[in-house]
Task: structure prediction
Amino acid sequence: MDWILPKETFENELLDMERSFLDPMALCHEGLNYCGNLLETYRSQVARSGFPDETAEIQFFKTDKPLVHGNYLHYALRLQLALDIPLMDLEQDRQHIKSLIEHAHKFLSRHHPMALYLLTGATHNDARYFLRKNRGGEGTARFHLQHFDPAFCTSHDGLVAHIRAQKSFQQHLLDLLGISPKMGGGHPVLQWTGSKTDLMELILALAEKRTINNGQATFKELVTQFQQIFGVDFGDPYHLAMRLRNRSHPTKFIDGLSRALLGRIDDLEG
Result:
């Protein structure tokens, strides 16, 4: 089935989008359009060609379709967050983000058996969960939203997509708060004592120069790391970046760094 986009190609397309858009709403709209169009392509191909065997059908509904559908749902959640955040102040932002993290946690806890089934690579219920002929009446439609089509859905592929979306959205929220489940607590050794705008200017310059991770580090990843290293809370980094880009002298801090470095070089040469 050569019409299925390879996972690596799909994820690279999303990474390119993450690098290309600073405006979170523009990014989410692009992500929704891309994933939505790919789902429609998949739906047409399934209706036209079907599957060569049940193994291929299970692979598609267990892995291939939920990958795209889950990212579609992820961008829908991020778009709603971007619409909500500008209406609040910084403390309200943090409280709202924390409430969304708790909501994602409750969803994942409620569907822990299915999440564990996927995590452990179990296969014993694959035929029941991911073959359309066994769909039955297990509440299929509620996890598919506008993408529900009886010929394009099984009993559990929509749930798998929602689990993927809630996991990735929860991580996105943790990144916004500068929290990483992989890192321990405690206070940062280094503290940024300049303005947040100055630090954001530096992060943007590094993101555009693409000198970290061979140019593969996204703006969001850089923001998360700098927040953790320096103990800074940007609130909504995307809106701060947009404000910085629109000011009359957007490279004020970088220009100051250049002058300081040149002055130091002159002192050494003297």
